[in-house]
Design goal:
The complex is a heterodimer of chains A (320) and B (352).
Chain A: H1 2-11, H2 17-56, H3 59-62, E1 66-67, E2 72-73, H4 76-107, H5 110-125, H6 128-155, H7 170-194, H8 198-206, H9 211-240, H10 243-248, H11 266-273, H12 280-312
Antiparallel strand pairs in A: 1-2
Helix pairs in contact in A: 2-12, 4-7, 4-9, 5-7, 7-9, 8-9, 9-12, 11-12
Chain B: H1 2-27, E1 40-46, H2 51-64, E2 68-73, H3 77-85, E3 91-94, H4 100-105, E4 110-124, E5 133-134, H5 136-144, H6 153-158, E6 170-174, H7 179-191, H8 193-198, E7 211-213, H9 215-225, E8 229-234, H10 235-240, E9 244-245, E10 247-249, E11 255-256, H11 260-268, E12 292-300, H12 306-320, H13 322-326, E13 333-334, H14 337-347
Helix pairs in contact in B: 5-7, 12-14
The chains are: A mainly alpha (320), B alpha/beta (352).
Chain lengths: 320, 352
């Protein structure tokens, strides 16, 4: 491939190679600087958190006490809160997004497509803090007064829907984040569904499949891997979401079974406590929280990818 | 290998060369170096609590001395302390006095210059027009989760004229580290040994119960949304947002409503050491509001830059005189007269 390109360039008479080379170097330097940046970030995080790692060791990851006054620190409730709120967001956002994109690619008349697409994309342009404020003043009162009591009365026998309803809490955070990751999952899955060749659909129709069967067998199954990739993109965004989550999750470093109970995330505790952390060890602990967040993000991405690979490789569906 | 590395190396060198080429013109107008002839720029950073007042001061001060501009970043007290220790700013600002440990890290003698004070109020959401009276141990036990209902015996005893609802109390506290939390938890540690032992005082503590809201607006929002909620916010914030707040029993046994005057009264009753690292929590004095705290500017006694040093000193003198008259307009409490005098004498010791 590389060789062929060079040959083509050489074949064109009068091509000045020096600007081309400079451009190549220039882009190479840019690509290199991204890697360098990531390395600097990780190096700084490790260096900043070194005193905390030395002081607390592995205990930091498995204990639940967070007491800056007595300098006892454990990250477990934050790890739990980050993972649970993100998974909740995915559970809510993925069906909605895929449903939207199936509608847009398979059913919606052309004149409806554009407005719906721009509506969804407009969601992505709303700043995080606006979602947070809207959550506090609009969404949460609505959830607390109507949705949560109903959930409790219907599903209250489950431990995840037990206990007092404050409004703010893990479930509210999950819902807010779900709304925030909807646009990215929707637009990526729409593009994936659009890239499914019409031949697939026509073949299924030829076999006498109904519309639903065509979408299920020929479209969704074909695009499965790409759709899951879209969900992983959403997950990445959900894990790091900070401001809106901080405003609606309740900020209590506790692990509770109930989704109504308040929780806390890794990103939130950094946002909350970093500016006023005055002692060295406290600051270092917050650096380590950042390192843990990076680790959790990388780990969940790896798990998600392995999961996707395991689910899709034997069926022979290869898209994107 | 060689072929792939070469463009990268040369490209990096190219970028470095471009960056270096830009540098001289950049630094000549760098943010911290005012030119000899033009206006001088002094950078400061720190506490968020006095930020509205400080920006008003800096604006007003332009009329007094047009040759100096102040640039203040409200990055938080912790950041303010670190920046002044590292000497990246001309002055720092903090809502809590620096610890001996932090002071030891400073490059020279750092002075605490108190500027104004503020109150932290106990705010609640009950049926409208209920004015509560509370004392320290009751507030502590509410925030410890020991008093769970609004019609608890102990609240009722303090408020015989009020019909209290049979509602659960929902505690709301700050989730972000803040000077407000520091003042509030210091007060609770002072009035309740139980609190001191279990929780202690700090900008962030392990709250035994309740929900965390981010910032004054987060706490206020949560209180407004939840019937039966109780929390603490800055007086300025409660005033501007029409929140109900309680009168608190002070050391002299009087129930005092928080206001700029009652905070200044708290300062007059305080025993203030010469380094001005003082607390005005629960001070003696008939009309002193007990949950109050001051805020400080942090400056080096030996100013590294003579020209900036002179301007900083002139500004501090103005802030401690004319500046004090502006404070009440924004609901900050000015320093008491005798404290002002002592601080001005301290400012005279700054060398530049």
């Amino acid at each position: 491939m590389e060789n062929r390109r060079t040959h083509i360039l050489q074949a064109i008479p009068g091509t000045n190679k020096i600007p081309d080379r400079m451009f190549k170097w220039f882009t190479a330097a840019m690509a290199f600087s991204v890697g360098l940046l990531l390395f600097i970030v990780i190096w700084n995080l490790v260096r900043g958190s070194y005193p905390a790692i030395k002081e607390y060791g592995w205990r930091f990851l498995v204990t639940s006490s967070w007491d800056p006054v007595h300098e006892e620190f454990g990250a477990l409730p934050f790890i739990y809160g980050t993972v649970v709120s993100s998974v909740l967001a995915l559970i809510i956002a993925v069906p909605l997004s895929i449903g939207t994109s199936v509608f847009l690619t398979e059913f919606a008349p052309l004149r409806l497509r554009r407005p719906v697409i721009s509506l969804v994309e407009m969601l992505a342009a709303v700043p995080s803090v606006i979602f947070g404020l809207w959550g506090i003043f609009v969404l949460i009162p609505f959830l607390r007064n109507y949705i949560y009591p109903w959930l409790e009365s219907v599903l209250g026998f489950l431990p995840i829907f037990e206990g007092p309803i404050y409004g703010v809490g893990m479930l509210s955070a999950g819902i807010i984040v779900a709304i925030m990751i909807l646009p990215i999952i929707t637009s990526v899955s729409r593009e994936i569904l659009e890239s499914v060749p019409d031949l697939q659909r026509e073949a299924a129709y030829a076999l006498g499949a109904t519309r639903w069967e065509v979408i299920r067998i020929a479209v969704l199954s074909y695009a499965k891997r790409g759709l899951m990739g879209a969900a992983v993109l959403g997950l990445g965004r959900a894990l790091g979401e900070t401001m809106a989550v901080t405003m609606v999750i309740g900020n209590r470093p506790e692990i509770a079974a109930s989704l109504f109970a308040p929780g806390y995330t890794l990103a939130s505790v950094i946002a909350n406590e970093f500016t006023e952390a005055t002692t060295d060890i406290y600051l270092s602990v917050l650096f380590e929280i950042g390192l843990v967040l990076l680790g959790v993000t990388i780990l969940t991405n790896i798990i998600a990818r392995v999961f996707i690979y395991g689910m899709t490789s034997p069926s022979g569906s290869k898209s994107t | 290998m060689k072929q792939t590395l070469k463009p990268i190396l040369i490209g990096t060198a190219l970028i470095a060369a471009i960056a270096m080429g830009c540098k001289p013109s950049d630094s000549s107008q760098g943010p911290d170096t005012g030119r000899e002839s033009g206006t001088i720029l002094i950078n400061g950073a720190g506490a968020t609590f006095p930020y509205p007042l400080y920006s008003k001061w800096f604006n007003e001060y332009i009329k007094v001395d047009p040759s100096v501009r102040f640039n203040y970043q409200s990055i938080g007290s912790g950041g303010g302390q670190n920046q002044i220790i590292a000497q990246t700013v001309g002055f720092g600002a903090s809502d809590a006095p620096m610890s001996d440990e932090s002071l030891a890290k400073a490059r020279g003698n750092l002075l605490h210059i108190p500027t104004v004070a503020g109150a932290v109020v106990v705010s609640y959401n009950l049926e409208k027009d209920i004015k509560l009276k509370l004392n320290g141990s009751t507030v502590a036990d509410i925030f410890l989760g020991k008093i769970k209902k609004w019609n608890d015996q102990r609240i009722a005893e303090l408020n015989p004229d009020v019909e209290l609802p049979d509602e659960d109390i929902l505690v709301v506290h700050r989730s972000d580290g803040s000077g407000t939390s520091y003042i509030f938890t210091s007060y609770l540690s002072g009035v309740s040994s139980d609190w001191k032992q279990k929780v202690g005082a700090g900008k962030s503590v392990r709250w035994p119960t309740g929900l965390g809201g981010k910032g004054n607006e987060g706490v206020a929002g949560q209180i407004k949304q939840s019937p039966g909620a109780i929390g603490y916010v800055e007086l300025i914030y409660a005033m501007h947002n029409d929140l109900a707040f309680a009168d608190i029993k002070n050391a002299a046994g009087n129930f005092i409503s928080p206001s700029a005057e009652s905070v200044t009264a708290a300062m007059s009753g305080a025993d203030i050491p010469d380094d001005f690292r003082f607390s005005i929590i629960n001070t003696a004095g008939e009309n002193a509001y007990p949950i109050s705290g001051a805020t400080w500017l942090l400056v080096y006694e030996n100013q590294p830059d003579p020209r900036k040093g002179r301007h900083i000193v002139q500004f501090l003198k103005w802030a401690l005189t004319d500046g004090q008259d502006i404070a009440p307009d924004l609901d900050y409490a000015p320093l008491s007269t005798n404290l002002r005098q002592r601080v001005l004498e301290k400012i005279d010791q700054i060398k530049y």
